[in-house]
Design brief:
Helix content is 78%, strand content 0%. It is built from 17 helices and no strands. It has 370 residues and is mainly α. It has 3 domains: 2-154, no CATH class; 160-231; 243-369, no CATH class. It has helices spanning 2-20, 23-41, 43-62, 68-87, 98-116, 125-132, 146-154, 160-194, 199-231, 249-255, 258-276, 279-294, 298-320, 322-330, 332-349, 351-354, 358-369.
Length: 370
């Protein structure tokens, strides 16, 4: 949070400069500010990250590799290297935090796939660096897409209402993170849970506290990024759309961490479904990638598998019991039953990632059933 506060201060302080210069210079100045700040914080890291992006661009520009499939494999693997090195703990003090690396690498992979599919033109080096070095989303996402970024740049013009909306969104984000997440769920509800004598009830309250804090942290930081983007004149995609209003797990994952879930859909699920002709294998693979994006560990592999199974069960129940599915998704009472059910399904699945190890996981499940 301290690093994010520094980033926000820099964005707010430099926003008058961004708005006063001609449009041609805006993206260059934003990228230069981002580069200077990152180079000051973690020079080795930013050098490696930009070097990988430069190697990607060389592969696109000069066609060293003639095979399209091999080219996309190389340009996807290049940004994965520093990410995997960090995830496997071969880290130094000069690295950016893992979350920043994860978002950065997935933006690079997005461009690699879109170039391979010919959905976008191969970017010029300067345009590519402008996209990657966009400060509001460096640390906390969302994984905004390059065409959307460039479209927003072209339409950029001073709008007092947009600037005000950005400041308001930053305020909302801070309230979610500090008051709702840290104070209400992480501190107050956790203290209430510790005072309960029943193991099962204590665990239930701790699960609710963990889930609520997780949501408000992610949603709050997304609000900060969206608000900071608006302050600099760039619209960043929404990342959460009332996920606990979903009535089934399939709908939930269309609403939770939208930039990540849609990235996994476009670049893991759809390619694997086309190659394997088996959408269930593709779904499980996509959810595993989504889980391992957070942390490469057994607990996240289990959590990702559980999410895939819950989605599969949603699809299966819709086919086998259409009347029940229709009631849950169509009737006002049924929708609230579905929302309560989805919230608790997701909350209790988070026991897998909230537990530090397998032993503590087993203890938690014993408390549920005893």
């Amino acid at each position: 949070m301290r690093l994010q506060a520094l980033f926000l201060a820099v964005i707010l302080f430099t926003s008058p400069l961004i708005w006063r210069v001609p449009n041609y210079w805006k993206a260059n100045i934003m990228a230069a500010i981002t580069f200077i700040l990152l180079a000051w914080i973690a020079p080795t890291s930013v050098l490696l990250m930009l070097s990988v992006a430069f190697l990607q661009w060389l592969v696109w520009k000069y066609d060293f590799i003639k095979s399209g499939r091999i080219k996309v494999i190389v340009t996807v693997f290049l940004p994965l290297l520093p990410l995997l090195v960090y995830k496997w703990k071969f880290a130094t003090g000069q690295w950016l935090i893992p979350l920043g690396l994860s978002y950065y690498a997935f933006r690079q992979i997005h461009v690699a796939f879109e170039c391979y599919k010919a959905e976008m033109q191969k970017p010029a080096l300067l345009s590519y660096f402008q996209y990657l070095l966009f400060l509001p989303v460096i640390l906390i996402g969302p994984i905004h897409r390059m065409p959307d970024f460039q479209r927003s740049l072209r339409r950029m013009k001073w709008n007092a209402s947009q600037y005000s909306d950005g400041l308001e969104r930053i305020l909302y984000g801070l309230v979610k993170i500090d008051f709702l997440g840290n104070f209400l769920f992480s501190t107050q509800l956790t203290q209430v849970a510790r005072g309960v004598s029943s193991h099962a009830l204590r665990l239930y309250l701790e699960v609710i506290a963990f889930t609520g804090n997780t949501y408000f942290q992610f949603a709050g930081f997304s609000d900060l990024a969206i608000g900071a983007g608006l302050v600099w004149g760039i619209r960043v995609m929404e990342n959460f759309n009332a996920p606990f209003m979903a009535t089934n797990m399939q709908d939930f994952w269309r609403r939770w961490h939208i930039s990540l879930s849609s990235w996994c859909r476009d670049y893991v699920f759809q390619p694997l479904a086309a190659l394997s002709r088996n959408r269930w294998i593709a779904l499980i693979s996509a959810m595993l990638v989504l889980a391992l994006w957070h942390e490469i560990s057994l607990r996240y592999i289990v959590w990702g598998t559980v999410q895939a199974v819950l989605i599969l069960l949603t699809v299966y129940s819709r086919k086998k019991t259409p009347a029940v599915s229709g009631f849950i998704n169509g009737h006002p009472v049924g929708r609230w039953i579905g929302r309560i059910w989805v919230f608790h399904l997701f909350a209790f699945s988070c026991i897998f990632i909230g537990s530090e190890n397998i032993a503590s996981l087993g203890t938690n499940f014993k408390h549920i059933f005893h």
